[in-house]
Specification:
Radius of gyration: 19 Å
Structural class: mainly alpha
Shape: globular
Order of helices and strands: HHHHHHHHHH
Largest sheet: none
Low-confidence stretches: none
Strand content: under 5%
Number of strands: 0
Length: 197
């Protein structure tokens, strides 16, 4: 692959994300992306080996952006317990404010499992932020966990599951427009198992 043209990569990602907001990944081909960008498909293949790699790059951008939102929410709090709760709610709120993007990032894009380990690790930015926040709370005597990695992984998976149920309207109808109430119940259950008093 050639060195990235600083102008073309953002254009490709922007146009592809716009397509992904309208169609599922399976419905989009490289030629359609190229047409939207005003370039040839061959040019895009110079930067991405296939559309899955392109979609994964976009998904990673979304995850890293979400992680910045989570960090900003946590930094507004002083107490380690409150930092964790603010971070969790920032994740939840992002999912509800960006339902199509959340569905895409959390389940719509093919896993980057064949990527090098250092690339795969980047996909866990939000998990690692959560782990650091939980370790800070443990150090302050406000939380307990024998495995912060596992407990944060369960938190993110469980919370996403709750958000997904609301977004897809698979919950009881009374929560379709009140996802906060539905997810807060899950958060209370998780918090009770983690926080000391």
């Amino acid at each position: 692959m050639r060195n990235a043209n600083p102008q073309i990569i953002p254009l490709i990602k922007e146009k592809t994300l716009a397509l992904l907001m309208q169609k599922s990944p399976e419905q989009i081909g490289m030629r359609e992306i190229a047409k939207e960008c005003g370039v040839t498909a061959t040019l895009i293949y110079h930067y991405y080996k296939d559309k899955d790699q392109l979609f994964q790059a976009i998904g990673l951008d979304c995850i890293l952006s979400l992680n910045q939102i989570i960090l900003a929410a946590a930094q507004k709090k002083k107490n380690p317990k409150e930092k964790i709760l603010a971070a969790i709610r920032a994740f939840r709120d992002w999912c509800f404010e960006n339902p199509r993007k959340a569905l895409l990032v959390m389940q719509g894009i093919k896993s980057a499992q064949d990527a090098p380990p250092e690339v795969i690790e980047e996909y866990y930015a939000c998990n690692r932020t959560g782990e650091k926040l939980l370790q800070e709370a443990i150090k302050a005597g406000l939380a307990k966990s024998n495995d912060p990695n596992l407990d944060v992984g369960i938190l993110i998976s469980g919370l996403w599951g709750c958000c997904e149920e609301v977004i897809l309207k698979k919950t009881d109808e009374k929560y379709w427009n009140n996802g906060e109430a539905f997810t807060e119940r899950f958060l209370k259950i998780w918090a009770k198992s983690i926080f000391v008093s």
